[in-house]
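TICKET: design request
STATUS: open
ATTACHED STRUCTURE:
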C-alpha cells in the first residue's frame, strides 16, 4: 500500500524522491546507452512519470521510448514492439490525468470502495471512469465475496434465483417467480455496492438473538444479490451428528435501482415488509411490519403443531414424558412473543492457537429433556470453556456450561472398571478434592506452600502445576497423552444418544453448571471431560448421572473471526451478563 501511494503521488506530480532524481541524472548521462536493459516493477512505475522540467530533451525521448517498450500488453493492448503513435494518451504523462483510461481503471479498482466517491469529486474524467462496471464489480467481490454476474442474469439465470426458489421459499413455482423478483436488467454493480452491500455491511457476521433464556445463532451473509439472515437450528434430538438446519429470518435486496428493500421471512406466507434498525455498535434490531403473515388459518393450535414438527421433528403425541411436554409448550409460548421484533448482539468465533487441545469452535450437544443445544468451545491458558449459544430455562444462553482443567488429566481404568459408576466417581472426586485444596491454598495468603498432587494416586496422570516455569499450560497433559483407548459409559448413566464413540484419546477433570428452573441456585458440579477425536467430545455429569455428547458444527461462517483474544473474552463476559 505504501509503495502504491508513493507511485501514485509521483504520478500526480506531488513530488519525486531523491532516489528518483538520482536515477534521472544517471539516465541523462547514459541516454545513448542500451535502452533495453531489464528494470524491476518499481522502476517501470517511476518511468511513467516522464521528464521533469529541468530534464534535457534527449533524456525525455529516451524515457518515453523506454516507457513504451516496457509497457505491459494487458494495460492497453500494446506489446513491447508497439510504436509511440499507438500510445493512447500524452507522450509524457505528468499526473494521473494524463494516464490512459484503462490504466486508471486498474488503479481505481484496487482502492477501497469507501474512497471512490471522494475520488469522483476530483474532476469530470475521474467521475466518468468511476462509472466503469469493472471497478465496482471488483469491489463487490473482494470486499463482500459476491459472485453473481449481473450481466448474465437475464440470459442464463443466476444462483440467487435458484437460492430463492429452492431454499428461501420452496413453494414458489417458476412461473410465478418473475413476478416476485425485481427486474435487474438495468441494475449495475455500483448500485449494488452503494445501496445494498456498503450500507448494511455492519450487520454481516454472527449474532445472538435476545430470546430470553433460549438465545440462538444468526449468521448474516451476502448470498448472491441478497443479504440473508439465516437462523441456525440444531438437528432434531438426539441426532447430534446430523447437519445443522437453517431458516431465513429476513433478507435485503435491490427491488429498485437506487433503493434496498428489507423483507421479513418469518411465517408460511412468503416474504413481506420488514425493517432493520442499528441500535448501537455491535447490535441491531429487526421488525416485521405485517405480522398477519405469521398467523395460520387454524389458529394457535395449527401454529403449535407446525412449530413442533419443525423444531422437534415429531408430534406432541410422540412425546410421552410429561415434563418434556411442559418444557416444549413453555418454549413455544415464550418464543412466539418475539415473532415481530428481535434484537441481536454480535458474537465472534474463538481464536485458534497452536497450543490448543483441539480446534475451538461451535458444537451441538445433548442436554436431556431440553434437547440439543449449541455451545462455543474456547481455550484460555490451562482452561477449556464451553459457553451456551442456545439455552433453556434452567441454564440460559450465554452461561458457562462446562469448564475443563487441562492440567488435571484423568487416566481411565480398564473396561470392566469403567462400567462401574462408583469407580468413576472415586477417580473424579479425588481430582475434585485436590482442585478444591488448590483453590483454598491460592485464596489463603498465609499459606505460601503449594499443594502438590498426591504422588502415585490411582487414576491420575502426574502433570506439572499450571504456570510452572518452562511449561506451557496444558502442554504436559497433551504431550503425555496415551494412544486411543477403549471407552464405555458406566452402568446407570443416562444418555440421549446410545450411539457414541467407543474409543477416546484422553480425559480431564472439569465442572458443569446446573441450576433450578429460572436459573435459581446455580452451582458447578464435578464431571469428566472425554475427548473422542478432533470433532467430538463428551461430558459425564456425576451428580445428574447423565452423559452429554458434543459434535462439531462444520458450516462455513463468514465475517465471524474475533479481532483479538481480548475482544473475544470481553464478549464472553458480556454474554453472561445478558442472561444473568
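STATUS: resolved
RESOLUTION: sequence designed for all positions
ATTACHED SEQUENCE:
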Amino acid at each position: 500500500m505504501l509503495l502504491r501511494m508513493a507511485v501514485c503521488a509521483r504520478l500526480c506530480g506531488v513530488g519525486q524522491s531523491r532516489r528518483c532524481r538520482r536515477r534521472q541524472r544517471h539516465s541523462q548521462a547514459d541516454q545513448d546507452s542500451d535502452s533495453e536493459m531489464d528494470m524491476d516493477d518499481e522502476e517501470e512505475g517511476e518511468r511513467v512519470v516522464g521528464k521533469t522540467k529541468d530534464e534535457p530533451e534527449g533524456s525525455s525521448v529516451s524515457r518515453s521510448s523506454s516507457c513504451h517498450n516496457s509497457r505491459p500488453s494487458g494495460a492497453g493492448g500494446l506489446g513491447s514492439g508497439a510504436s509511440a503513435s499507438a500510445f493512447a494518451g500524452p507522450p509524457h504523462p505528468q499526473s494521473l490525468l494524463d494516464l490512459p483510461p484503462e490504466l486508471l481503471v486498474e488503479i481505481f479498482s484496487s482502492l477501497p470502495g469507501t474512497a471512490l466517491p471522494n475520488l469522483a469529486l476530483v474532476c469530470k474524467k475521474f467521475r466518468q471512469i468511476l462509472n466503469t462496471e469493472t471497478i465496482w464489480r471488483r469491489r463487490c467481490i473482494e470486499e463482500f465475496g459476491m459472485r453473481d454476474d449481473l450481466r448474465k442474469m437475464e440470459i442464463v439465470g443466476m444462483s440467487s434465483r435458484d437460492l430463492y426458489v429452492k431454499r428461501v421459499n420452496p413453494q414458489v413455482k417458476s412461473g410465478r417467480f418473475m413476478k416476485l423478483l425485481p427486474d435487474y436488467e438495468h441494475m449495475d454493480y455500483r448500485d449494488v455496492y452503494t445501496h445494498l452491500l456498503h450500507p448494511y455491511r455492519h450487520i454481516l457476521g454472527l449474532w445472538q438473538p435476545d430470546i430470553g433464556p433460549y438465545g440462538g445463532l444468526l449468521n448474516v451473509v451476502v448470498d448472491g444479490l441478497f443479504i440473508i439472515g439465516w437462523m441456525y437450528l440444531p438437528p432434531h434430538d438426539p441426532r447430534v451428528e446430523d447437519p445443522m438446519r437453517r431458516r431465513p429470518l429476513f433478507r435485503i435486496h435491490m427491488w429498485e435501482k437506487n433503493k434496498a428493500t428489507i423483507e421479513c421471512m418469518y411465517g408460511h406466507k412468503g416474504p413481506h415488509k420488514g425493517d432493520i434498525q442499528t441500535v448501537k455498535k455491535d447490535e441491531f434490531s429487526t421488525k416485521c411490519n405485517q405480522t398477519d403473515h405469521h398467523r395460520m388459518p387454524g389458529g394457535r393450535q395449527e401454529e403449535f403443531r407446525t412449530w413442533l414438527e419443525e423444531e422437534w421433528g415429531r408430534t406432541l403425541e410422540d412425546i410421552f414424558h410429561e415434563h418434556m411436554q411442559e418444557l416444549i409448550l413453555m418454549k413455544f409460548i415464550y418464543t412466539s412473543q418475539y415473532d415481530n421484533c428481535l434484537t441481536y448482539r454480535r458474537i465472534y468465533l474463538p481464536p485458534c492457537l497452536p497450543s490448543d487441545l483441539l480446534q475451538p469452535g461451535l458444537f451441538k450437544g445433548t442436554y436431556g429433556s431440553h434437547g440439543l443445544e449449541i455451545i462455543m468451545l474456547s481455550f484460555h491458558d490451562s482452561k477449556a470453556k464451553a459457553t451456551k449459544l442456545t439455552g433453556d430455562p434452567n441454564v440460559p444462553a450465554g452461561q458457562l456450561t462446562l469448564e475443563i482443567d487441562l492440567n488435571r488429566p484423568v487416566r481411565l481404568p480398564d473396561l470392566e472398571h469403567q462400567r462401574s459408576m462408583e469407580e468413576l466417581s472415586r477417580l473424579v472426586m479425588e481430582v475434585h478434592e485436590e482442585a478444591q485444596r488448590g483453590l483454598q491454598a491460592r485464596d489463603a495468603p498465609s499459606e505460601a506452600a503449594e499443594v502438590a498432587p498426591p504422588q502415585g494416586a490411582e487414576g491420575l496422570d502426574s502433570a506439572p502445576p499450571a504456570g510452572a516455569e518452562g511449561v506451557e499450560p496444558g502442554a504436559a497433559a497433551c504431550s503425555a497423552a496415551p494412544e486411543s483407548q477403549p471407552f464405555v459409559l458406566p452402568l446407570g448413566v443416562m444418555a440421549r444418544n446410545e450411539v457414541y464413540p467407543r474409543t477416546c484419546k484422553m480425559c480431564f477433570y472439569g465442572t458443569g453448571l446446573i441450576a433450578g428452573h429460572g436459573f435459581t441456585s446455580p452451582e458447578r458440579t464435578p464431571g469428566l471431560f472425554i475427548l473422542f477425536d478432533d470433532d467430538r467430545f463428551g461430558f459425564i455429569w456425576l451428580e445428574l448421572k447423565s452423559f452429554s455428547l458434543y459434535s462439531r458444527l462444520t458450516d462455513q461462517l463468514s465475517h465471524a473471526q474475533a479481532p483479538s483474544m481480548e475482544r473475544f473474552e470481553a464478549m464472553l463476559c458480556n454474554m453472561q451478563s445478558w442472561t444473568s
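CLOSING REMARK: The two ends are 46 Å apart (CA to CA). The chain has three domains: 97-181, 198-345, 353-436+484-578.
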